[in-house]
Amino acid sequence: MDMKNTFNGLVKSASDAVSLAASAVVSTADSSCTVAKNAAEKASQSAMAIGKSAGEAICTSADSTFNFMETASNVVSEAAEKSYTSIKVTASKVGQSAVAASKSTGESIAVATDSAGKFIGKVSVLVGDLNDDGKVDYQDAKICRIKSKRSGGCHCG
Questions:
Q1: CB 92, CB 99: distance < 8 Å
Q2: Which of 77, 83, 121, 156 could form a disulfide with 144 if both were Cys (CB 3.0 to 4.6 A apart)?
């Protein structure tokens, strides 16, 4: 019986060894699952932190872009307002200059017309004053009519 006991002991020892190995595998698998679970949680937390940082960076960038655009818009509006004011002032000055030039031209035409009228009046007196009394009057018309009858047409002067 010794052999039977020995064989049973060997089987029992082998069974214990397999059981111990299986326990080690289960323990190792549990440890591996725990490590994998912890790693997955840390990766998830890192991904969330990266996402949060990226979101904050995008928000900050959007705020900066908005502030820049608002400032640029204000600068453009101020420049446009100054340009409009400058153009308005310049247009007003041009209008005033045109009015002054028109007035000056009108005055020049009036002076020229007056001078021409006086000149024509003097020439008329020189041509029409047939009796040399310094004026053109009824007596000059009579003289012209007489001369006209004699010569067959009016050649007064």
A1: no
A2: 156
Against a cut of 0.70, is the pTM above it?
A: no
d(CA 136, CA 63): 95
pLDDT tens per residue across span 140-149: 888 888 887 7
- DSSP code of 153? S
Under a CB-based contact definition with an 8 Å cutoff, are residues 131 and 143 in contact? yes
CA 8 centroid distance within chain: 100
DSSP 74-143: HHHHHHHHHHHHHHHHHHHHHHHHHHHHHHHHHHHHHHHHHHHHHHHHHHHHHHH-TT-SSS--HHHHHH
Q: Is the pLDDT of residue 28 over 80?
A: yes
pLDDT category of residue 153 using cuts at 50, 70 and 90 = low
Tokens of 98: 């045109």
Q: Which two tokens stand for residue 10?
A: 């060997």
Q: Where are the domains of the chain?
A: 2-109
